[in-house]
Amino acid sequence: MSFTNKVVIVTGSSSGIGASTAILFAREGAKVTITGRNVEKLNKVEKEIDKLTGNKPLAIVADISKEDDAIGIVNKTVSHFGKLDVLVNNAGVVSYRGIFDSDYLTEFDRIMSTNLRAAATMTYAAMPHLVTTRAT
Ligand SMILES: NC(=O)c1ccc[n+]([C@@H]2O[C@H](COP(=O)([O-])OP(=O)(O)OC[C@H]3O[C@@H](n4cnc5c(N)ncnc54)[C@H](OP(=O)(O)O)[C@@H]3O)[C@@H](O)[C@H]2O)c1
């Protein structure tokens, strides 16, 4: 399948699986939006994609656990590239805290707001754009 001129958001693409996924999409011809909270790591991936593919990504510093930031990623992508074809909800955090830890519920909220609610928020914001591009 060709991704030439497809517009793809990969959340959590400042490192790890997300960074590799964004690089692969760009190599396949996609225009990619990369996101994360860490500016230095995000800049590094941005430069790598540009160097490897000549396909300059849109880099957005954002905390997806904040609703406005998450919706902003979708809006800025559509405003920059004109459409959205693919959303990869990759960003996530791992925690090894358990029920015996005093901050258990605080940690529970952090994990849920990042790994679950943010993915729902991103998908909800992206959905009208995905429906539009699927029909064209
Ligand atoms: N590696 C594994 O074996 C494995 C196994 C099962 C599931 N997973 C899941 O696969 C995904 C990627 O894993 P990985 O190993 O590549 O992890 P990673 O290297 O730690 O990458 C996680 C990414 O998520 C971003 N992120 C985390 N919290 C964020 C937030 N609040 N707002 C915006 N970005 C946020 C990080 O960016 P910043 O730090 O720049 O914010 C980073 O780019 C995660 O969801 C992980 O839980 C991984």
UniProtKB/TrEMBL annotation:
Pfam families named among the record's database cross-references: adh_short
SUPFAM superfamilies: NAD(P)-binding Rossmann-fold domains
Coiled coil, from the record: none
UniProt superkingdom: Eukaryota
Protein name: 11-beta-hydroxysteroid dehydrogenase-like 2
Organism expressing this protein natively: Eumeta variegata (Bagworm moth)
Gene: HSD2
